[in-house]
Amino acid sequence: QVQLEETGGGSVQVGDSLRLSCTASGFTSNKNVLAWFRQAPGKERQGIAAINAVGATTYAAWVKGRFTISQDNNKNIMYLEMKNLEPEDTAMYYCAARSGQMLILVQNGFNSWGQGTQVTVSS
For residue 4, how far is the Cα from the chain centroid? Predict the structure, then answer.
């Protein structure tokens, strides 16, 4: 059973940077896709970025270079570097996993989810 744990959330000011981590365990294959999603109060969950086992990535169009996804395969940790944070980035951030290599950002394509880590950006 795949387990995902997000860490690194917190309360920051506008313009600050933050790095989220997702520690993954329980994979039965080395071909997996990890992704970041977020959900703000009253809004639908939206995909941010995904990365596969060979390091290929995809980003949502709205990211526009402010967020960077990466991973440390040796440690089974995925990261999301966020810079120039804005109040609109306030949300619960989730890590998700799916088997295979296809990079998608549709939440129903992922069958494993972490509990989330809260990011709050204040002006």
Answer: 11
19-72: pLDDT as tens digits: 999 999 988 787 899 999 999 999 999 999 999 999 999 999 999 899 999 999
Let me know how many helices (H) and strands (E) the chain has, helices first: 0, 11
Q: What percent of the chain has pLDDT over 90?
A: 88
Q: Residue 23: count other Cβ atoms within 10 Å of its Cβ.
A: 16
Contact 50, 105 (CB under 8 A): yes
Tell me the sheet residues that pair with 122. 13
First to last CA, the chain: 40
Torsion angle of the four alpha carbons 23, 28, 31, 35, in this order, in degrees rounded to the nearest 10 = -30
Rounded CA gap, 11 and 33, in Å? 28
Average pLDDT of the chain? Answer: 95
